[in-house]
Structure formats: structure tokens, C-alpha cells
Amino acid sequence: MTFSGIMFLFGGLAIAGPLLAHLLARPRYRRVPFAMMRFLKLGETESQSRRRLRNLLVLLIRCAIILLVAALFARPAILLAGRQEPPRPVFYLGLDNSMSMAYGDHLDKLRAAAAEAINRAPDKAVFHFYCLASGTAYRDLSKNEALAQLKDVTVSGCTAEMAPFLAALHGAKGKEHEHDIVTAWMASDFTPAMTAILDEDTQPVYVDSFDYEVIGAEKVSNAAVVDAAAQGVGSERLSLAVAVANYGLEDQHRTLAAKVEGRDVVTAQVDLAPGLRRVFRLDVPTSAVADAYAAVEIALDGQDPLAEDDAYYLGLALPARDSQHVLVTSLNVREGFLVKTALEAFARNSVFDDLTVRHILHRDFDTHMLDAASAVVLTSLPARIAECADALRAFAMGGGTIIFFTPPDADAVGFQQLAEAGVAAAVPGTWHTGPVSIASNSGAILAGDLLNPDGSVIRALDNYRIESLPLAGYYDCGTEPGAERLWVLSNGVGFLHYLPIGKGATILVNTSADDSLGPLLKSPAAVAFCRYLLGEKEGVHELTFLCGESASLPATSVELAAAPGRQAAWVVTPNGTEVQATAAGSRLTAPAATSPGWLRSLARPLRYAGINVPEGETDMVPASNARIVRLLDQVFRQKSLSGLQEAAVAGNQATRPLWREMAWAAIALLLVEAFLANRLKR
Asked: Quick check: pTM over 0.70?
């Protein structure tokens, strides 16, 4: 007989309780001489003997009940005949195939180390191995199958994930495999990206044994282009900000080049000490990116042992390079000063060297000025606005943007005349005085915003916390047919009303352009707010994604009309495979790519999206052996030697539990004990 919880047997010591109670409860007799009682002596002796026997029997039954309960908690079982098969050895292999394993011969070392671990295992062992970056899993393999499958392990650009591997180990000791001898084995270079994953608050897994292999080089040398972004485009240059990091232990002296169609168009010298990250500015001539969509590859010259992170792929959607002119008209200089200042700051700081701002007063405004403008800002309405309504509508139809602000004494009649002419997005009604703010959930309302679909300006506005800016009041604005409320106030009233007209649009802002109704255009958010109002015509849109992310390309009207919401167009992935993309909204969405390179459309115009390695994934600075051991010890817990011996015994012997029999015996004894105790009372 065996017990799974042998420590519970010590509970049997509780029988001392009934024994002590029995001894203390024995009656104490005192002899008292009494006449004529000698004739009852024989009957008295017989009655006391029966009572002592029943008392002893009750005591034994109570002790037996306590012993049975203790044995039940110890989970007793009897050993049957030996099993025909020994316990099954099962090996779980976690292989780190992230991009850092493309360094030099690390991948070959990984395969060789895994092959050696497989060869050391018993011939009847079962193997499951998990590729931590690509998410590929191979299960229930024999030794020969596992060795053959190692050849298919390749490097992935995705970030390694430990969760599937650890989840498999958590379930390794299921009901059908409780006697398996489970061994976990892991191979990695244990770079900062991997140690950060191991350092997460992870529930430990318990295995029978664990081993690992560190794949590394004595002295690593690696530089990477980790990020790139377009700062803006002008008439002569496209300005890029490029981040380069030294992910090794040696100084780096390299040349950074921006390539268009395989040609170096601009270069910069890179000198970085180990562990440093620096941003470089590259000005690409606009003559090199003449199309609406451009593919710019930013690469380091020469080669270090990890070439895959030497290039960054930056897909761009470029705006038309017509000069942008914004006309601001106001009642007086003060009324238009803040919006003019914010627009000029935007023009200076965004590298749009062909954006100009002109400020005039209402008395000098003439509709002929609209011919040279791409956007017009009216901080209030001129006295003769009705005469300008048709010219303003024609301006918007041709692609212009008209922005109306509402001063404290907004001209409701003038706005009504504009609405009748189809120019106003909303008409200010009743004025309400009192503190109000922009709704705090504007970020959610602006998802898929008409003026800023990619969300870049919206994120900037969120950083400035515009919802915390107080406004002195608001107008109840009636939204015109065809117009939309893009933003709302905290009380649900519309703040920004948008009306598309032809190729352009009109916007009504439910606050003043000066600080009379609130500090919006006097706050740090003013530049970003003006950039938002001008729309995305001025912006360069980046088409870059990380390995493992779902990537998308702008869709043409033909592609959207062909099959909305279904697979509508073919695209080419970074590994050269042609796949179908799904049209949704204004985008073509393709399946996630796992290697860096270009995702491009097959149909013209050719559109490019860059697929890149996540930043930090190829940081090759190794962790110390002590740190590796500490991290692995907190994730993988090994059973003791006695636990392994118990598992081996359990594996070779079949058992049958006895808890049912003991439970029924305890119940029967409880009934007998109750009967006898009742008889003793008589």
C-alpha cells in the first residue's frame, strides 16, 4: 500500500484524545457496607463486565474512525502488477529564433545545440518544440522526426513570446500523462529583449528537469537603423529623422545612406560608441521622389555579422507639392494675432518651406485674394459676407479649406446667409455663458477622423491635454445637412463642425480665435490645433509597420469599388510571395509579415509599406551568467530527487485507490459507535 499524502498519517495521533477521555471518565467507587446486598453480588459482577466490554468496544471504534479519517486524507492506494511500459520521457524545447539569432552563425549553433539535446534523450522520448519568435510549434515528434524538423527552423523578425511555451509546460502533467518525466530545455542568446521577457511577472512552471544553452559570441559588433520618420516636405527637400543605435561592444564608424530605387541620394557619417543611440537628419532631394508614393531605404554601409537590421524600410505617401498659402482675415489685429502666430510657427517648425501665412483686416478683404490661397481663416464675419458667399463656395469646390471661428458677438444672420448658400457647416444659435471644456473622450471620437485619418496630429493634441483647457461659453449650433460634428464639448454640444464641399471643405469652430472665450489658441496646443484644421494635405504619411503586425496600403477607388470588405487586390510580401489583401475603409490590409522588407501593391500606382524589425530586438549586448541563472530559476522550477524517484515508482507500478472502501468503513463504524453509545446510557 502507498500513500500520496503520507504526512496526513500523523493525524492518527489524535487517537490520544479518546484514550485520555476514556481514562478520565472511569467511575471511582467507594465501598459502603450495606445489609442484604450480598445476594446481588453475582448479578452486579455480570452487569459491570458487560458494561466494561461495551466501553472498550466504543473506545476502539472511535480510535478506528480517527485512523480511517487520517488515512483517507493520505490518499491510500494498493500496488497492482507492474506496468508493461516504463514512464514516458517527454522533452519540451524552447528555441529563440528572433532576429538576434541571425547574428553570424548563431542560428547554426542553435540547431546544433538542439540536435545534441535531442540525441542525448532516450530513443523512446517524445519531443515538442516551440519557436518562440515565429510562434511555430511542432508536437508529438519522435527523435528522428525532431532532428529532421530542426532544419525548418528559421529566423523571424517578430518579438519572441514565452507564453505558448510556458502554457504547454503547465499542461504537460495532464490526467493522461501524469506519470510522464517532463524535461524542459531552452536555447537563446539571452539578449536584453529576451531577458526582459523572462523578467516579467510570470507564473513559474514545475518540471522534472531543466537545462539551457547560451548561444553567443565572445565580443559582439552590431549597429542598427532602428527608426526613421519624415519630418516634412518642401519644394526642394524631403527631411528625414533617422535613429541609429550601437547594439554591440565595439565602436561603430559607418556611412548612413538614404536610397531611392537602389541609388544613394544622401549620406551621413555615423560614429557611435557602444550602447549609444543617435538621431541623424537626412535631406532627400524631392527630385528623387517624384511620384505620390515613395520607397526610401535607409541603410548602413559595410556589413556587421547581423545584416538584417542594417536597413530600415520607409514607405511614404507624399502630398502634392503645390505652394500652400493661408489667408487670415479678422476685424482687427488683435482678433487674428493668435491664430496667425500659431500658423507661422507651424510653417517655421514643420519644414514645410512653401507654406506662407498672410493676415489682413476685413476692410481690406477681397474675393480675388482667394485665387492665391489654399485655405482661408475668418476669425469673425465681414460686414458684407453675403456678397462673398458664392465666391467662398467656389473656392471650397476647387479644393480650398474655409475655417470659421465664432467670437462672443457672432453674426448669426451672416452665418445663416452662408448656410443658405451651402457654405457654413453649422449656424451659431443661443449663446450660453459658463465653464465648459472639450470632451475628454475626443480621442475615441476622432478615430478615423476626416481631417487626420492617420491620427498623428490627434495624438499630438492628446499629449497637450486639450480637454483640460476651459472655455468661457459656447453656442448651440445647428448642424447643416451633409455636415458632421468632428469634436464635441463635455456637455455634448458640437465643437468642430465639418462640411465637405466639392474637393474642399468648410469648418466651424465653436470658440473664438482670440483668448476672449478661452485659452485654446494661446496654449501650447495651438500649433497642433492649427495643423489639424488645415487637414492632411500638408503632411507626409509614413507607411511603416513592425514584423508581426498587420500591414496596410492606401487603396485606390477602383480597388475599393471592386470588392469592399473582401479580398480585392494582390500585394507582394517581403519574401516575394503574392497574397491577396482585403479592402476596408480606405486601406488594403495584408496578412502580417514576419521578415523585414517591402510590402508593395501589384497594381499601379505602386504603393510601398516598410516592414521593419522592432527596436531593441537586435540589441546584442549579452546578459551576465548570474542574471541568466537567476531569471531561469524563477521561471523553471525543478522537482526534488525524491520527487523524481516517486514518479519513477509510480510510473512502473499501477495502483488502485482505496478511499471508497475506507470511507464506507468509517461510515459503518460511526453508525455502530452511535448504537453502542446509546446502549451505554441505559
From this structure: no
